């Protein structure tokens, strides 16, 4: 706000209350400030007040349109007449309107000409007419213009087609973030060309739930973060990104003989969520000397021998000699008596500094699986042990007598020594007998612990939390340990 602007507005409002229209006498920039707290539709309605207010809304730097324009030509003309550059333009389908590709394509060029910040177009569902037309062979494609001045683009199209602009349309000169979700591409190579040669500042790319993308090549000298999630049917993925720091690939590749070549020598964080059999010799990850973190991997403690999902996890872990942080989830099926204990199939882990171990016991004893992992991580400095949240079970180990989960007892007597473990964090602790035993066994082996943080499960009352605090204090034999206990919305005990 300009100096003195607040006083001018206050004086004008006071005068208006006395029956004098002093608001309309204010400068345009101050009138625009009055309209900013209003939603975009209400701000536009002020144009009916008088001739003076007719164009005031066009001075707003941000527009939030809650529904797709029913008259695309009128909306196009309004954008073209907007008097300031838009630092944010959002158009949603949540408030109604017809998701007609041709209608959207009419006003998009005007949006591209006005946006100098972020643009968001969210279409959750296409109209029945558009669906019927697509089934009859109509292209159903939204033509994306070149947003030469936009810094961020987010488009979700309810699986409408998207055609990127041809090279002659120009360059996305300032684009830093590009997110395309629920779209399909008739020719994915056109998108590949845009990323490789027409986005000189692109740092963040997210492609999610796309169709008709059987092959994908991403080549960029500027990308720092890339997220590829559920790109249905991709059988070949080529990534050449020399500056990439974070990569997420989630259920993108076909299960049967996919090809993937990842060249990202400066990668620091890798999260690869796969379908069974997706990681094999045909997936080349290249040199990743700076890799520090692997995203969440999962392993089933009980199941059929040589379970493909477990085998894939083990094969993936064997690709890395050392990383800083590993997130690993141990899963238990509700009924395990018909299965085998599978933890022996996991016989090696990378050298770690931080282990985030998530355990979903489904009512079973989980000490054996937990300590099988821990005995391969005796050099860790920090452990996060995260238990599953509240369930209908009275205790996490209330699976009934005779369950095979009680057969693995070596962890209770084996010698463990975590000589470098200085920090332990336990989440969703409920205080069952089995949880108590696991924690006590851990603390007996953590001779160098300096910091302990425990967050109790939401089912734990304050009085129960205080009892558990005393129990933890009795378990910790190392002097000088800093302890932090919290329950219910992280309230400190």
Question: What can you tell me about this protein's structure?
Answer:
The chain has 493 residues and is of the alpha/beta class. It has eleven helices and 24 strands. It has helices at 5-17, 28-35, 40-45, 72-80, 101-114, 128-135, 188-197, 308-317, 367-374, 433-445, 462-475; strands at residues 62-65, 86-92, 115-122, 141-143, 152-163, 177-184, 204-208, 215-219, 225-229, 236-240, 246-250, 259-263, 269-273, 283-284, 293-300, 302-303, 325-331, 340-341, 354-360, 382-387, 423-429, 451-456, 482-487, 491-492. It has an 18-stranded mixed sheet that branches. A four-stranded parallel sheet has the order 8-10-12-14. Helix 4 (72-80) runs parallel beside helix 5. InterPro entries: F-box-like_dom_sf (IPR036047), F-box_dom (IPR001810), FBL15-like (IPR055312), LRR_dom_sf (IPR032675), LRR_FXL15/At3g58940/PEG3-like (IPR055411). Pfam families: F-box, LRR_At5g56370.
Question: Which SSEs are present, and which pair or pack?
Answer:
Layout (H helix, E strand, L loop, with lengths): L4 H13 L10 H8 L4 H6 L16 E4 L6 H9 L5 E7 L8 H14 E8 L5 H8 L5 E3 L8 E12 L13 E8 L3 H10 L6 E5 L6 E5 L5 E5 L6 E5 L5 E5 L8 E5 L5 E5 L9 E2 L8 E8 L1 E2 L4 H10 L7 E7 L8 E2 L12 E7 L6 H8 L7 E6 L35 E7 L3 H13 L5 E6 L5 H14 L6 E6 L3 E2 L1
Parallel strand pairs: 1-2, 2-3, 3-5, 4-5, 5-6, 6-7, 7-9, 8-10, 9-11, 10-12, 11-13, 12-14, 13-15, 15-17, 17-19, 19-20, 20-21, 21-22, 22-23
Antiparallel strand pairs: 16-18, 23-24
Helix pairs in contact: 4-5
Protein name: F-box domain-containing protein
Organism: Urochloa decumbens
